[in-house]
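Bug #2210: token dump truncated for DUF4247 domain-containing protein?
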Amino acid sequence: MRHTRLSAAALVAVTLLTGCSGGDADDDAPRDWIAEQYRSSDGDYLDEVDAPARVASEIENHRSARGRIDSDTDDMVFLRYEDDIVALSPYGSGSRIEIEDYATGYRRWNSHVSTWPVPGSHDDEFRGGGPGSGK
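Reproduced locally. Full output below:
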């Protein structure tokens, strides 16, 4: 009986660990999906046909972002996820897709994404004001 309980406990532990590892977390950028959908190129991804705004919408249709910024000056689009930023920029007649962890992406594209919370500030946990609003 003791052996059966230990085996069952080990099976539960392995199942939990397997479920928590690998793949994309629901609040991170859908890296695996992007890798399957778009052509890899020097660590980035390319869509040789669609403009950045359209590719961003395709990505958001797969997994909603916490924030989106469409830049009017250079046709770039930025998608904010819990731990990542996806940047889409014009590339020929299509788009280049770059994925950075949030802190690196925030520093790299600060001129575009400075309205988003500073990495590590916990500002993204603000749920609104007013009595009982979102609390």
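Output looks complete on our side. Confidence is low (pLDDT under 50) at residues 8-22, 126-130. Marking as cannot-reproduce; reopen if the truncation happens again.
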